[in-house]
Amino acid sequence: MAGMTDLHEILGALRPYVRQGAYVVVTTQTPPDIVYHARIVEDEGTTLVLDQAIADEYHLTYEGVFGWITLEAHTSLQAVGITAAVSNALARVGLSCNVLAGYYHDHLLVPLDSVEEALGVLGGLGE
C-alpha cells in the first residue's frame, strides 16, 4: 500500500501518539547484543535508539532522555515537506526534534519532559 504524498493530506492525518517509555540515543563501535528500536550504521560508529533502562544496564553513555512520538499517517518515503513542517512547528516553540523515518510512519524523539507540549503543537498542524 502506497503512503500519502500530499502534504496537506498528511498534516490532516498525522494523529500523533506517544510510545510509552524513556528512550536514549547511544553510539558504539561494537554494539552489544541488546534489544534496540532503531539502528543506524555510520562511518564513525553505530547509533542505537533504545530504552534508557537498557542503556543504563549496559553502562552506555547518552545525552538526553527522549519521548517517542509516532505520526500515525502512512506517509510515502517520497513525500515532500513533512519533516520540515513538523520540525519547524516544534522549533517555533523551542522544542528539539530528532526524526526517524520508517516505511509506514515517521517517528519523533523529543525531550521527555516536553512530550505533551509537542503533542499539542503537532495536533494543531492539521487545522
TrEMBL record:
<feature type="domain" description="DUF2241">
    <location>
        <begin position="2"/>
        <end position="66"/>
    </location>
</feature>
<dbReference type="Pfam" id="PF10000">
    <property type="entry name" value="ACT_3"/>
</dbReference>
<dbReference type="InterPro" id="IPR018717">
    <property type="entry name" value="DUF2241"/>
</dbReference>
<dbReference type="Pfam" id="PF13840">
    <property type="entry name" value="ACT_7"/>
</dbReference>
<keyword id="KW-0808">Transferase</keyword>
<feature type="domain" description="CASTOR ACT">
    <location>
        <begin position="67"/>
        <end position="122"/>
    </location>
</feature>
<dbReference type="InterPro" id="IPR045865">
    <property type="entry name" value="ACT-like_dom_sf"/>
</dbReference>
<dbReference type="InterPro" id="IPR027795">
    <property type="entry name" value="CASTOR_ACT_dom"/>
</dbReference>
<dbReference type="GO" id="GO:0016740">
    <property type="term" value="F:transferase activity"/>
</dbReference>
<protein>
    <submittedName>
        <fullName>Acetyltransferase</fullName>
    </submittedName>
</protein>
